[in-house]
Amino acid sequence: MSHKRFFLLFVSLSVLVLSGCWSKKELTELALVSAIGIDKNEDGKYVGTLQVINPGNVAGVGQGGGAAPPISVYTATGENIVDVSRNASTKVSRRMYYAHTNLVVVSDELAEEEGIQPILDAIERDPNFRTTATVVIAKDVKAGDIVRTLTPIDKISANKIIKTLEYTEKVHGYQIKVTMQELIRSLVTPGREPMLTGVIFGGDPQKSGKMENLQETEPLATLELNGLAMFKNGKLVDWLQEDKARGAIWIRDKIKSTDIDVDWEEKKEVISFEVSRQKTDVSVQMKDRMPKINISTEVEGDIGEARVPLDLTKGKTMKKIEKKIEKEIKTQLEATVEQAQENKTDILGFGEAVHRSKPKDWKRLQSNWSDVYFPELEVSVEVNAFVRRTGIRNNSYLSNLEE
């Protein structure tokens, strides 16, 4: 009997120290912010555009003429990012909740003039904000215009941008997904500058925030990924486009899959090589107290298309194709290195490689790395390409047509 009384007494006392749901947050009391766009106005104040999810409208949007949009957009200005958030809260009947914010859009004008460093502290410091949020640059357009765009298929445009970015990074290799955490790490890592993907408008920007943009078979306004922004000391200095953008990702050993088009005889880009695997290493040698960078990449893949008559059963033909692929990749990587050196920004991480392998030499080079040593680096590129498969057939039917 005494054991039962002791147990009841223990349970009763335990109830007194239970905290309960003291920090509960009801969904009906929260405004879920899915994306933030950051610009600056003519007065030098920050302009924040907050994309807030309308939960009841996400699933049903577009099913009828009177359907409401899946997002609402609120704009506020302030002297700093915290001030922007505070001022935005006066326009919403619910508490602004940033735990679901997965996209931060920064205008290229702000990134170029002021840099991205000043705006990151407030976002990273907020315990409700996830540092896994993706960061992109609004190219030739206001960040707020990107955030307020309505998109089909993915009803929340923040999700649309992120999914597109993940897919193109995996398949094409022209863009790279960078989180807030990775961006800050690049800013503070010696010998490596950050790169961010650009987002542009396609179509009519005036229609981007209207419901009719969702009701057309071909959207009147679309969001597209375009180029990689190059940064130096936190400021945007230039853009890498297409092959050069892919070259930067390639040197950083981030390519998962892509296509390389090569010429054959007098015809341009008629053979497509689908990269299925690649491994790139960056090594450092010291020569006369100066580092020399060696880039070595090994590539494997398949023939995806051949728009010329070819006998792919011949080893000589395959070897010739591999040499052309090697030459094309080498040319692209060298062009990327050249543009980075012209802008004196080490987005390729060469300084990080020197720091890692030659720490004593790095101490001597670090202070003048970007402006003095990096632009004058000797860089060699070696590419080894291997065609593993030719698809479900060897010779194209074009060979029979020619005969």
From TrEMBL:
It is a lipid-anchor. It is found in: Membrane. The keyword Signal applies. Residues 226-391 form the Spore germination GerAC-like C-terminal domain. Its main location: membrane. Keywords: Germination, Lipoprotein, Membrane, Palmitate, Signal. Coiled coil: none annotated. It comes from the Bacteria. The keyword Membrane applies. Residues 24-197 form the Spore germination protein N-terminal domain. Belongs to the GerABKC lipoprotein family. NCBIfam families: spore_ger_x_C (TIGR02887). This is Ger(X)C family spore germination protein. It comes from Bacillus seohaeanensis.
